[in-house]
Design brief:
Blueprint: H1 6-15, H2 31-38, E1 43-48, E2 51-58, E3 63-67, H3 78-84, E4 89-93, H4 111-124, E5 130-135, H5 139-148, E6 153-159, H6 175-184, H7 193-201, H8 212-225, H9 229-238, H10 244-250, E7 255-260, H11 268-278, E8 284-289, H12 296-299, H13 301-316
Parallel strand pairs: 3-4, 3-5, 5-6, 6-7, 7-8
Antiparallel strand pairs: 1-2, 2-4
Helix pairs in contact: 1-9, 4-5, 5-10, 6-7, 7-8
Keywords: Hydrolase, Signal
Protein name: Alpha/beta hydrolase
GO molecular function, one term: hydrolase activity
Length: 318
């Protein structure tokens, strides 16, 4: 039985797909068109550690940095940012080469590079201490940063992160997802909207949130990554969850682990409880959100935020 992770294995495979483009491949938007369509009113772009970083800042108060997951973008946090910015200064950014950031001219997508990008972004904004919130694979650089920069991390929220290699039973996939993956193999150089729609549906409990606009966003932004196959290969080569346990052990900041009860990607039993055990912090809590899937930020944002708010208020005093 072949087993891989939908959020990592299948999607990393998407990045490393052949550069051969089928004749029926849809036209891709250039970067100018993508910025016009997907940048926010408060979007900013700056060069940090040699690459272009897309970021957005809104609100006033204690600083909170939001780190998105695989093949998403800072838009993954739209609902969270709108609510959190009423009380906090919310910073979010696209992890290169996702969203509108990058690619890295040096082909550097290592964790060390991602730590330097976070340092550079927060230095640019003159923010010395802040709370980090990360979801899914965003937990990998967030945990590494918290372990390496304890003086800067005031508190940490890790949501549905992988504690080690993630495995997913392909035989247990929904028939529609299997069909989308089979169809996708017929044109190795690009992905149809239905491919991304089924990936998204596999990671939520409420399908109403998977709108045509969201599917098109994922299609357009992820098509950008396929222009140069070398980018995908560099990302895949630098993406490993083997370091996660050591990084978790080294974390000293107060930490809230926020888990979805219906996360079949990074499960509560395999990853959530193990993360709680491994965490080096003496101030650590595991909270479970019922009826929510792996992509918590847009599957159950309000119920998730209700669990996060008391932690933020205690850590920041606001």
């Amino acid at each position: 039985m072949k087993a891989v992770s939908v959020a990592t294995g299948l999607l990393l495979a998407a990045l490393t797909a052949s550069s051969a483009i089928a004749q029926s491949a849809p036209a891709q938007l250039d970067d100018a068109a993508l910025r016009s369509r997907y940048a926010l009113a408060n979007s900013q772009f700056g060069e940090i550690d040699g690459e272009t970083v897309h970021y957005a800042v809104q609100g006033k108060g204690p600083a909170i940095l939001l780190v998105h997951g695989s093949f998403a973008s800072l838009r993954q946090w739209d609902e969270w940012a709108a609510k959190l910015s009423r009380r906090y200064r919310v910073i979010r950014y696209d992890q290169s080469p996702a969203g509108l950031s990058g690619p890295s001219p040096a082909g550097d997508y290592s964790i060390e590079h991602r730590i330097r990008v976070i340092d550079g972004l927060m230095d640019r904004l003159k923010i010395e201490r802040f709370v980090m919130v990360a979801t899914s694979s965003g937990g990998l650089p967030a945990a590494a940063y918290a372990a390496a920069r304890p003086q800067r991390v005031q508190g940490l929220v890790l949501n549905n992160i992988a504690v080690g290699p993630v495995k997913f039973d392909l035989d247990g996939m929904a028939p529609a997802l299997k069909a989308a993956l089979a169809e996708d193999r017929t044109h190795p150089g690009w992905h149809a909207p239905e491919y991304w729609r089924q990936i998204l549906l596999a990671n939520v409990t409420d399908p109403s949130g998977i709108t045509p606009a969201l599917v098109q966003q994922w299609t357009d932004l992820n098509s950008r990554l396929l222009r140069d196959p070398a980018i995908g290969k560099a990302v895949a080569a630098s993406t490993s969850f083997k370091r996660a346990p050591d990084d978790l052990r080294a974390i000293t900041a107060p930490t809230l682990l926020l888990w979805s009860a219906d996360d079949h990607e990074t499960t509560l039993e395999r990853d959530g409880k193990q993360a709680l055990y491994l965490l080096g912090s003496t101030d650590k809590t595991l909270e479970v959100v019922e009826a929510c899937g792996h992509m918590m930020p847009f599957d159950c944002p309000n119920r998730a935020l209700a669990r996060v708010t008391p932690f933020l208020q205690r850590i920041t005093g606001k």
